[in-house]
Amino acid sequence: MRYRHIPHSVRPRPMTVLIVENEALVRLELVSRLAEIGLTPLAASDADEAIALLDSHPEIELLLTDITMPSGSMDGVRLAHHVRDRWPPVKIIVVSGLIDTDPADLPRDSIFLTKPCRPEILMDALARMTSGSGTSGAAA
Q: Which of 29, 81, 83, 135 is deepest in the core (most CB within 10 A)?
């Protein structure tokens, strides 16, 4: 599914997004889709790669991370807390298809989405985070 049909009013403003996803095909699809709507995606397969990218790319404004990551030093929830502590301005969206996460377990001002995520739900979350109205909580 392409995102071209999504009205500009619900599209996020241009920004650099770090995608952390261990499944290569899912990661590549997200990179393609976010680039298609005018975002600048960077990609990592685990938390360690993500931290290296955050260290070398201060322009990253949003972290989109899966929870389950079999490799690396931490899962997506721990990565989200690490990012909140070390890079407080970075917005955070946590996703999972396997784990139902209590919003209280996530860093403040983050969003949880279940996978697979419908395109309009992801666009809404990205738009909320870029407008500053993101809140900690779950979305369908």
A: 83
Three-state SS letters, the chain = CCCCCCCHHHCCCCCEEEEECCCHHHHHHHHHHHHHCCCEEEEECCHHHHHHHHHHCCCEEEEEEECCCCCCCCCHHHHHHHHHHHCCCCEEEEEECCCCCCHHHCCCCEEEEECCCCHHHHHHHHHHHHHCCCCCEEEC
**Which structural domains are found in the chain, ordered by start?**
11-139 (3.40.50.2300)
Q: Over the stretch 41-99, which tens digit does the pLDDT of each residue have?
A: 999 999 999 999 999 999 999 999 999 888 888 999 999 999 999 999 999 999 988 76
